[in-house]
TrEMBL record:
PROSITE patterns (alphabetical): GLYCOSYL_HYDROL_F32
Keyword Hydrolase in record: yes
Segments forming domain Glycosyl hydrolase family 32 N-terminal: 12-342
Protein's UniProt keywords contain Hydrolase: yes
Protein name: Fructan hydrolase
Record lineage: Bacteria, Bacillati, Bacillota, Bacilli, Bacillales
GO molecular function terms attached to this record: sucrose alpha-glucosidase activity
């Protein structure tokens, strides 16, 4: 494939063919970043009874090489989401004298021949840099006690206790388990069962990380990140994520090797910290195995929403990832907040198109009327003036546009994709997504990533994010910078093309 089909992401990963959902087994090992993912290799729709771990590798998190599916289903059922670790000290005993290797920890879902079979956790190991995997003969390594929703193990190494920690999604809560060897797991604690009515469905794909506060190596906190699925809703009347359907929340707190204690108790939906206010960022998890010298926390999400995921208008494949994002924890007047910024490696794709500084933007003018782009990086800073709304229109033509705007009186960033797309493939897709964000020192900063079928908007240096898919015609390439109801100052603007990663 030349990766130039209609809607094909140009700087996001998507499989050459067929279905993908969650990223799985993210691990850095011997110079390669691994991206495994939920994949049905023979169908553009998800076949849950036949789910594989698809596989791609990258040296820079930007350019990816797709490899054959890594872990296929078998007698044990389909291979659902999970994680991978570098077993440095050979705690598993899988690697003998040969040294260290990779261990994958995943969920087996009962297949069609065995309906109602509970989900169990299994492991597999690889001695050849993730190319081939051997399922452990002692599988499964963890059984549920009383629920069918028991899945998506994320495993990390916990230094202080010299133990492996697993965080697992268990319907309306998560559970922590510990293990010395990845084969025997002991229950340690649960989190979330005592929080009433915070979501309408089930937790999926949890992750827990230790992270520096304000980049200070001596002060660290833990963040628990949770995806919320609205299938099999346990409380259909309860609130849902801001853009509806699949969404992600996070908690900041401490983890002692056994249990997670949040800094703040969650009293209502209004105090939930949302990872993304767009419709299309789900099941994100962080890379294991990034060295201490690098020290970055990086994650990637499935850029999609189960509400309409199976109906997307792309033909050859279905599903893609977000751009990889670096995570930080920063102190604000209102408290600590998770910051997400595109990884620095993306800057290698830049080809400058336009740069402007210190300009007054007035209603009726469009300083971008001479340029066009079907994909772009737009980095802008504005000083609030008398305008009541301002922003960019991207992927614009006579009858299509995606608006990325800021409403000053509501202090709201938004992406309006109601007129974005060629096809109206699902009623939940046509929407405007809003995120609360206040000007800082009278300014609003935006970093926007426009690809052939998506926009990701990072507000105020990664504090507030909106990620949305769009499906415009390739010919819809117009750009506009607009102001409504008054003027404002454009402090700076840089627009770059991002060269396709597919060469
Ligand atoms: C989340 C999810 C996971 C599950 C996988 C199945 O999107 O539902 O909970 O492991 O997808 O493909």
């Amino acid at each position: 494939s030349c990766y130039r089909e209609t809607y094909r992401p140009q700087f996001h990963y998507s499989p050459e063919k067929n279905w993908m959902n969650d990223p799985n087994g993210l691990v850095y090992f011997e110079g390669e970043y691994h991206l495994f993912y939920q994949h049905t290799p023979h169908d553009t729709r998800p076949d849950f009874g036949n789910m594989h771990w698809g596989h791609a590798v990258s040296k820079d998190l930007v350019h990816w090489t797709e490899l054959p599916p890594a872990i296929p289903p078998g007698e044990d059922g389909a291979i659902f989401s999970g994680s991978a670790v570098v077993d440095k000290n050979n705690t598993s005993g899988f690697f003998d004298e040969e040294g260290s290797g990779l261990v994958a920890i995943y969920t087996n879902e009962g297949n069609k021949a065995q309906p109602g079979k509970p989900q169990v956790q299994s492991i597999a190991y690889s001695k050849d840099k993730g190319r081939t995997w051997t399922k452990y003969e002692g599988n499964p390594v963890l059984f549920p006690t009383d629920t069918l929703d028991f899945r998506d193990p994320k495993v990390i190494w916990h230094d202080e206790s010299s133990m492996w920690i697993m965080v697992l999604a268990v319907r309306d809560h998560v559970e922590f388990y510990t293990s010395p060897n990845l084969k025997e797991w002991s229950f340690a604690s649960d989190f979330g069962s005592d929080i009433p009515h915070i979501h309408r469905g089930i937790f999926e794909c949890p992750d827990v990380i230790r992270i520096q506060v304000d980049d200070d190596p001596n002060t660290t906190k833990w963040i628990l990140m949770l995806s919320i699925g609205d299938r099999n809703g346990v409380n259909p009347d309860d609130p849902e994520p801001p853009a509806g359907g699949s969404g992600m929340m996070y908690f900041i707190g401490n983890f002692d090797g056994k249990s997670f204690t949040p800094d703040e108790t969650l009293e209502s939906i209004d105090t939930i910290k949302w990872v993304d206010y767009g419709s299309d960022f789900y099941a994100a998890v962080t890379w294991n195995g990034i060295s201490n010298e690098d020290g970055r926390k990086i994650w990637i999400g499935w850029m999609n929403n189960w509400r309409y995921a199976t109906t997307l208008p792309s033909k050859e494949w279905r599903g893609k990832t977000s751009i990889p994002r670096e995570l930080q924890l920063r102190t604000y007047p209102e408290g600590l907040r998770l910051i997400q910024t595109p990884i620095n490696e993306l800057s290698q794709l830049r080809k400058p198109i336009l740069s402007l500084q210190d300009l007054t933007i007035k209603p009726g003018m469009n300083v971008l009327s001479d340029i066009s782009a079907a994909k772009a990086e737009i980095i802008a800073e504005f000083e609030i003036g008398t305008a009541v709304e301002f922003g960019f229109k991207v992927r614009k033509s006579a009858n299509q546009e995606t608006i990325i705007g800021y409403n000053i009186s509501n202090e709201e960033l938004f992406v309006d994709r109601t007129k974005s797309s060629a096809t109206d493939f699902h009623s939940d897709f046509t929407a405007k997504h809003k995120a609360p964000i206040k000007p800082e020192h009278g300014r609003v900063q935006l970093s926007i990533y426009v690809d052939w079928s998506s926009v990701e908007v990072f507000g105020n240096h990664g504090k507030t994010i909106i990620s949305d898919m769009i499906f415009p015609d390739l010919e819809s390439k117009g750009l506009e910078l607009y102001a409504i109801g008054g003027e404002l100052r454009l402090v700076s603007l840089q627009i770059n093309d991002l060269v396709s990663i597919w060469g």
